[in-house]
Design brief:
alpha+beta, Immunoglobulin-like, six-stranded antiparallel sheet, about 30% strand, globular, transmembrane helix, cytoplasmic vesicle, metal-binding, C2_domain_sf, Multiple C2 and transmembrane domain-containing protein 1
Length: about 725
């Protein structure tokens, strides 16, 4: 028998009950709502149908929350890449009265913690019959867009009255819902925390493709490969016009499960201006691979043609960790001594990838932005180091939260940047951004509690609030120096490039400034030839004769070495020639204003979406301008001692090159270089080509990054000594 029942909701969301015939059972309408008895609500979450797509691939990773009285009482598992998920999960809830409806919310899980809202509905418990199993079909709606079709959720529910001994249990449950916000948030934190503690690393080297399917009219393809392990995603570079691409790229995944997992691999053909063509797919079952061993795999592409050649290595690793402030690794003398010994200069060649140890104490925040209509926020904090991402518990209804958590990370690159972001947990939508700081590891002063002014999303200006952190970094300088000469670790969560008028203009101005340096140098040299200033031209002529007559190849690194030394003495003497780049800062602020405007007028972007091909070209030009400008700025910042560690490393390298070029004839150096290049493929067939100089420069920040990493001065009222009393709301 099928009948409809009114669903208690502001949006009048429909719910359909498919009741099984049952002669025993009384309607709950006969039971007064003020009845002191308690109820047990048994729910089986069956499945979802035609749910909303929230990911770029046209799918979602849905999970379901149940709430009663504003408190979360159940959270389902996540079903990956499925719009028709099957859960078959059971929940037993104890309810002290039936006035509060069951609030059902569906989200799309994103590893970056910004879960997307997929719809919600209310289930009126007063309309359920007692002791009778009922099949319920819930239609999901978005209160902001009531006309959108977001799919349905299928449930089975049984409502049973509980008396006597069950009353005590129910009272305990009710009390647990009314605990302090700190206790509640700790429970929620446990749910979030588990998938963020990784137990090993899966290193994949994408070698080549063989006999791939031709997708273009010229009989070729522009192939690239996508990898996915859970919520970790990588994308290879595009190899134009070939069916046998040679990639030689490496990607590192974090392994969160002891038993391994499945890596999904798809090959695509890049098409500018339209949807990319699918070439084929394959999978790697990590549970079938042995650890601490490199496996060469030749995988046949399904639903397509050709093979992919990969190297896969599973290695165990020390896990990142979260603990309370009272449990502090560095305050334990034995543990501290063990860590210092682990990264001592004597252990240079022991595990070259393990560069150092980072401990971050997230103590508290003050004066945060109010994100809720009540004038409060529900803040939690996310700590990121490259692809390692951990979070604190949520402190509810508080603008001055205290977390008192300690995070530890293994450092793989000392030039990494620690990012600490504060969010507001939103019950109905994705988390709201409250503020962020980015701290280069090399700028950290160990053991010092500091108040960091929170910045906006672009890290260009302050936002409301400060966060108190205490950070310690221990690393091996030799390992860190060697790590500088190999490619940087890619982040598997990257913001998608978008077309921005301000960003395009900013990159053009940056590149123009780099080019103008060369143009001005050419004008200066030409003026010497024209004898505009006789004294200057005479000095230049004498210098030219002296240099050319006495020139040796070793003088090139020697001149660069002298330039670095000259700038160093200018800095220590107080005559710093480094100038604050106000132009870049102004451009970044303009970009932030444009972003805010774009967020408000997101529905007015139809014109750019209609000319997708032109947008692709503009984005490519925008990125090329950024790369060229960043290259010039990084060279300048190396000589300007922006990052002293890197400048000292450059001095060591230039000294070595000067000595080598002075004592060893050039033909021997070229001979060694050529032998190395010709035999590299024979000695290591699957080695990834890299350029040590470019890898070094990639660690030097551009002018934009210098502004983003710049620490803002805190308000004098915010100091560790003047601690404000928490607003408990």
């Amino acid at each position: 028998m099928l009948y409809s029942c009114k669903l208690k909701s502001v949006c009048n969301l429909p719910v359909t009950y498919n009741k099984k015939i049952n002669t025993a059972g009384t309607s709950n309408a006969d039971v007064p709502l003020a009845d002191p008895g308690m109820y047990q609500l048994d729910i089986t979450l069956r499945r979802g149908q035609s749910l909303a797509a929230r990911d770029r691939g046209g799918t979602s990773d849905p999970y379901v929350k149940f709430k009663i009285g504003g408190k979360e009482v159940f959270r389902s598992k996540i079903i990956h890449k499925n719009l028709n998920p099957v859960w078959e999960e059971k929940a037993c809830l104890l309810v002290d009265h039936l006035k509060e409806p069951l609030y059902i919310k569906v989200f799309d899980y994103d590893f970056g913690l910004q879960d997307d809202f997929m719809g919600s509905a209310f289930l009126d418990l007063t309309q359920l019959e007692l002791n009778r199993p009922t099949d319920v079909t819930v239609t999901l709606k978005d209160p902001h867009y009531p006309d959108h079709d977001l799919g349905i959720i299928l449930l089975s529910v049984v409502l049973t009255p509980k008396e006597g001994e069950h009353r005590e249990v129910t009272m305990l449950m009710r009390k647990s819902w009314k605990r302090s916000s700190k206790t509640q948030s700790l429970c929620l934190s446990d749910v979030h925390r588990k998938p963020h503690l990784w137990r090993g690393i899966v290193s994949i080297t994408l070698i080549e493709g063989r006999d791939l399917k031709a997708m273009d009219s010229n009989g070729l393809s522009d192939p690239y490969v996508k990898f996915r392990l859970g919520h970790q995603k990588y994308k290879s570079k595009i190899m134009p016009k070939t069916l046998n691409p040679q990639w030689r790229e490496q990607f590192d995944f974090h392994l969160y499960e002891e038993r391994g997992g499945i890596i999904d691999i798809t090959a695509w053909d890049r098409d500018a201006g339209k949807r990319d063509d699918f070439i084929g797919r394959c999978q790697i079952d990590l549970s079938a691979l042995s650890r601490e061993q490199t496996h060469k795999l030749e995988l046949q592409l399904e639903e397509g043609e050709g093979h992919l050649v990969l190297l896969v290595t599973l290695t165990a690793s020390a896990t990142v960790s979260i603990s309370d402030l009272s449990i502090n690794s560095l305050e334990d003398p034995k543990e501290r001594e063990e860590i210092l010994k682990r990264y001592s200069p004597l252990r240079i060649f022991h595990n070259l990838k393990d560069v150092g140890f980072l401990q971050v104490k997230v103590i508290r925040a003050e004066g945060l932005m109010a994100a809720d209509v009540t004038g409060k926020s529900d803040p939690f904090c996310v700590v990121e180091l490259n692809n390692d991402r951990l979070l604190t518990h949520t402190v509810y209804k508080n603008l001055n939260p205290e977390w008192n958590k300690v995070f530890t990370f293994n450092i793989k690159d000392i030039h990494s940047v620690l990012e600490v972001t504060v969010y507001d947990e939103d019950r109905d939508r994705s988390a709201d951004f409250l503020g962020k700081v980015a701290i280069p590891l090399l700028s950290i002063q160990n053991g010092e509690q500091k108040a960091y002014v929170l910045k906006n999303k672009q890290l260009t200006g302050p936002t409301k609030g400060v966060i108190y952190l205490e950070i310690d970094v221990i690393f091996n300088a030799v390992k860190a120096s060697l790590r500088t000469l190999i490619p940087k670790e890619q982040k598997y969560i990257e913001e998608e490039n978008r077309l921005s008028k301000q960003l395009l203009l900013r990159n053009f101005i940056r590149m123009k400034r780099c080019v103008m340096v060369l143009v001005n140098a050419a004008y200066y040299i030409n003026s010497c030839f024209d004898w505009d200033s006789p004294a200057r031209s005479l000095a230049a002529f004498v210098l030219f004769l002296f240099v050319v007559w006495n020139f040796e190849l070793y003088m090139i690194p020697l001149v660069l070495l002298l330039l670095l030394t000259w700038n160093y003495f200018l800095i220590i003497s107080g005559k710093d020639n480094r100038q604050r780049d106000t132009v870049v800062e102004d451009m970044l602020e303009d970009e932030e204003e444009e972003d805010d405007k774009d967020d408000k007028d997101s529905e007015k972007k139809g014109f750019i979406n209609k000319i997708y091909a032109i947008q692709e070209v503009c984005i490519s030009v925008q990125n090329i301008l950024d790369e060229v400008a960043s290259f010039g700025e990084r060279i300048k910042n190396t000589f300007n001692w922006t990052i002293p560690f890197l400048s000292w490393l450059a001095i060591v390298a230039l000294c070595a090159f000067t000595v080598i070029l002075y004592f060893i004839p050039l033909r021997y150096i070229v001979l060694v270089w050529g032998i190395n290049k010709f035999t590299k493929k024979l000695r290591s067939p699957y080695a990834i080509d890299n350029n040590e100089l470019l890898d070094f420069l990639s660690r030097v920040p551009s002018d934009v990054q210098v502004v983003q990493y710049q620490e803002l001065k805190p308000d004098p009222s915010h100091s560790p000594c003047k601690r404000k009393k928490n607003n408990l709301g």
